[in-house]
Amino acid sequence: MKRLQKCCCCASTRTGTIITSILGIILSIVTIIVVWVVDKHLIRYSTFFFDEDFDKKLTYYDIPRIILTVNLCFTILICALLMIAVHKRRSWLMLPWVVLGIVLAIGLLITVLHTSITYYLDGQDHAIIATIILIGGLFYLCLYLYLWVVVFSHYLDVRDEEERGRYRKAPYRR
Known about the structure:
Blueprint: E1 6-7, E2 11-12, H1 13-37, H2 52-60, H3 63-88, H4 91-121, H5 127-164
Antiparallel strand pairs: 1-2
Helix pairs in contact: 1-3, 1-5, 3-4, 4-5
């Protein structure tokens, strides 16, 4: 894979990595707030493994909200770890975000496709909503993958610097 040298054609991959981690923290906090502020009857959770009554019990006890909140708290933790890694120039601290990022991208693709297909197959006229979800979700996925490539490029740069050692670096990088 070819490494990126710049983020958005003007900033370094280091700056892009910091911006990505800040965006991850902000979006996680906003999502936690929305999940707990929105009335639970407006959001429908379904497991697809159990019957509808079990899904209603899970929703009644706020189990999906709690699981989502715990996941988002871990996302905040990993994004904070990414900011520390950029500041200290440690590649092994960036690795959890890199791994989580690609797993989340796969999950996002599956979620967007599943949601849009479900709306398309619904008996009512939800084709416009399904199309908006599909196009918006794929656009968001492309943006997310670009930011992941920025972070991964910076991770590779830092890892290469660590492997070279302090005295083998170029004089302007010491």
